[in-house]
Amino acid sequence: MPPTGLPPYDESNIFARILRGEIPSRRVHEDEFAIAFHDINPQAPVHVLVIPRGAYVSLADFSTSASEAEIAGFWRAVGRVAKELGLEAQGYRALTNMGEHGGQEVPHFHVHLFGGRPLGRMVPASGA
Ligand code: 5GP
Description:
alpha+beta, globular, 5-stranded antiparallel beta sheet, binds guanosine-5'-monophosphate, 4 helices, HIT family, subunit A, 20% strand, 128 residues
């Protein structure tokens, strides 16, 4: 159950359906704690999403509710996927959107991995 103030987990969200294998994804990694797959609408030459297997709405939920093993396993997977994608030498960005101001669209915690070109400023200057 997410902490007070956060929405309940929606079992029908698109990443829950990808986890259950109900809709296809181009997976690049899977282990006990996480799966990773290419974003359907890539914003960089490499744009991969890493998601925990557990049902967590956002980073706020995951950091509060997940076990130590899930947290460690998930973040190890993030680093491992970036390495396996060949992003370490030239660098990459790991990003998570949380809630309305973060622009989160899919309510299953995920980390975006972007790479393959210089990525510019962290946040658009316009705030758009
Ligand atoms: P958010 O804005 O929630 O941080 O990012 C959600 C991401 O999920 C977006 O980059 C979007 O392109 C991606 N996405 C949405 N639906 C699908 C889907 O069905 N398959 C895949 N692979 N990615 C998706």
